[in-house]
Input
Amino acid sequence: MSQHPAFTMAGLCAVGGVIGFVSTIPSLVAGLGVGALYAYGGYRIKEGGDYGYEIATAASAILLSSSAPRFRKGPVPMGLTVASSLALAYYGKKVYDFRQ
Output
């Protein structure tokens, strides 16, 4: 069940990257790259592999750090900032719980 947020974020990032491609190629690369990180993290979580939660946490931190400075520029960066904050809190808590 913990893999579902990662797969959801992977889809959102991939779709956002494709939509962003209309304006710039770096948006496509960034969206697909972060989406791939989320997908890989979700796969590792689903299969019970090591470091799945850490990968999803890193993807959330990367997405948050890139979307937060653009928060006021429109609904897309705003939504990405909120979604990545929630994912970072969720997966950060999971990593913290495993380390304790």
The helical segments are 3-20, 25-47, 52-67, 75-99. The chain has a mean pLDDT of 90.
